[in-house]
Write a structure and sequence with these properties.
Layout (H helix, E strand, L loop, with lengths): L12 E11 L9 H5 L3 E9 L5 E3 L21 H16 L7 E6 L5 H7 L4 E7 L14 E4 L17 E5 L8 H11 L7 E7 L1 H6 L12 E2 L2 H11 L2 E8 L4 E7 L20 H20 L4 E4 L3 H10 L8 E3 L17 E2 L9 E4 L5 H10 L4 E5 L5 E3 L2
Length: about 400
C-alpha cells in the first residue's frame, strides 16, 4: 500500500531513504556505553511527495517518543546559534502593535530560553510555554511567564488563561507525525475575532535533499516541510501564509502566518525539481567515502566529530555503527560531556580533549568559524574537515 502524503494527500511519492535501526531520540544521551548501545530504536522510511515536496517517515511510531527531562536539544551554548535566535526574537518583536502589550504562547519552548529573551523587551502582557521536557526552575523569571510541562494539544488548551496574540513554534512541527492536526489545534486555540500571528521555524527538506545532507534525516524529524508544503498545510488548516523565508544559511524555513481571510493565501509555488532519485545511492557513496577517510586519518592521529546532537548522532551511526573508528564526539554543551551517544556508544567530550595532530569532522558548516576560533585559542594544530569541503589546517 502506497502511503498518502500527510499534507496534500497525494499518493505519488518516492522513497528518499530507508534505515532499519536508528535511535528514536537523537538528543538523548546516556550515562554509560552499555545503556547507549541499547537505546530505543525505530525504523526510518522517509518518503518525498511528488506534489508538495513534503517529506515524512512512513514508519514513524509516536508511541516510541518520550520527551522528558533527559531530552536535551539546547544549542544556545553556541554564539552562532544564540545570534540566530536573537535575530528571530527581533522579527517577533518587530511584528508587535506598538500600542498594546501582547499575550504570547510558545509551543515546544524547551527550557524557556526564547521566552526569557522575549521578556527582556517588556512588550508582553503574558508569556506562556508548553514543553514536556521542561526541567528548569523559573526563579528570577518574568512575573508574567508560565511554562506547562506538557504537550500543546486539544486536551491542554484549557490551560490558556488569555486570548492569544502571538504563537511561536520553533523546531517543533517537524517532530509531529500529524502536522495538519497540529496546525488545526493552533487554529482552534485562537479567537476567530482576534487577529493572531503565528511564527514557525522548521528545517527545509529542499536544502537537505539538494545538498545531500544525509545526516539531517533521522527519527525525531518525522515531518519535514518545503515552502510549497507549508503553503498547502496553512491553507488546509485555515491560515493565511503571509511570508516564508529561508534562514540560518538556508537550512531552516521561517513562516509568518496569520488568521486573515483564507482567500488571501498566495497560490502554492510550482513543484520544484526536488527528487529522491539518487539520494540513497549517494548515501552509500557518502558512507563509504567517509569511512575510508576516517580510517586514513586515523593512521596519523585520533579522529573526532564535532557536534553530539542530531547530525552527529546520525553521522556516527552511518559511518561508524560499532563506535570503533571515532575517538569521540566533541560538544560544548556541558550537560552532554561525559555521556554517550545512542546506539554507537560514542562518548561525548569537551574541546580540551583535543590534541595536536587530531582530526575533527565538523557536522554543521555554520559553526566552522566559531570552532576554528575556539581551537586556535587552544594553540593546537588540528585538522578540520567539513562534510562537503576539503580539510583546513589549524596551526598553533
Amino acid at each position: 500500500m502506497i502511503p498518502a502524503c500527510p499534507i496534500c494527500a497525494t499518493k505519488r511519492n518516492s522513497v528518499l531513504d530507508q534505515r532499519e535501526r536508528v535511535p528514536v531520540l537523537q538528543n538523548r544521551v546516556w550515562p554509560d556505553r552499555a545503556s547507549a548501545l541499547s537505546a530505543p530504536a525505530g525504523r526510518l522510511d522517509m518518503r518525498l511527495c511528488a506534489n508538495c515536496n513534503f517529506a515524512w517517515n512512513a514508519a514513524f511510531d509516536p508511541k516510541l517518543m518520550v520527551y522528558d527531562s533527559f531530552y536535551d536539544n539546547n544549542q544556545l551554548v553556541s554564539e552562532v546559534f544564540s545570534d540566530h535566535v536573537d535575530a528571530m526574537v527581533q522579527r517577533i518583536i518587530t511584528s508587535l502593535d506598538e500600542s498594546a502589550e501582547a499575550h504570547l504562547v510558545e509551543i515546544g519552548c524547551g527550557q524557556g530560553d526564547l521566552l526569557r529573551r522575549l521578556a527582556r523587551a517588556n512588550r508582553f502582557a503574558s508569556l506562556t510555554g508548553f514543553d514536556p521536557a521542561f526541567k528548569n526552575a523559573l526563579e528570577g523569571h518574568d512575573a508574567n511567564m508560565t511554562i506547562h510541562t506538557c504537550l500543546f494539544d486539544n486536551d491542554t488548551l484549557n490551560l490558556l488563561r488569555h486570548p492569544i496574540d502571538i504563537i511561536v513554534a520553533r523546531h517543533t512541527i517537524e517532530h509531529i507525525h500529524r502536522p495538519l492536526d497540529f496546525l488545526r489545534t493552533i487554529r482552534a486555540a485562537v479567537d476567530a475575532t482576534r487577529p493572531t500571528k503565528i511564527f514557525l521555524e522548521t528545517p527545509d527538506i529542499n536544502w537537505i535533499v539538494e545538498n545531500f545532507q544525509h545526516q539531517d534525516l533521522f527519527y525525531e524529524h518525522c515531518s519535514i516541510f518545503s515552502k510549497r508544503a507549508m503553503h498547502f498545510g496553512c491553507q488546509a488548516a485555515g491560515f493565511n501564509l503571509c511570508a516564508i523565508t529561508s534562514v540560518f544559511s538556508d537550512q531552516y524555513l521561517w513562516a509568518e502566518i496569520d488568521t486573515g481571510d483564507s482567500q488571501l493565501i498566495a497560490e502554492p509555488t510550482a513543484p520544484s525539481l526536488l527528487t529522491a532519485d539518487g539520494f540513497r545511492a549517494k548515501r552509500l557513496d557518502f558512507v563509504e567515502r567517509w569511512r575510508d577517510q576516517i580510517v586514513t586519518l586515523g593512521k596519523e592521529g585520533r579522529v573526532w566529530l564535532w557536534g553530539a546532537s542530531s547530525k552527529g548522532v546520525t553521522f556516527a551511526l552511518l559511518v561508524d555503527p560499532d563506535g570503533e573508528l571515532l575517538a569521540g564526539a566533541i560538544d560544548i554543551n556541558p550537560k552532554k560531556v561525559g555521556q554517550f551517544m545512542p546506539l554507537t556508544g560514542v562518548q561525548v567530550c569537551d574541546p580540551t580533549q583535543l590534541e595536536s595532530g587530531d582530526s575533527v569532522i565538523v557536522m554543521n558548516p555554520n559553526y566552522l568559524a566559531e570552532i576554528s576560533n575556539r581551537i586556535a585559542s587552544q594553540q593546537k594544530s588540528i585538522r578540520l574537515l567539513t562534510l562537503d569541503t576539503a580539510h583546513l589546517e589549524m596551526s598553533a
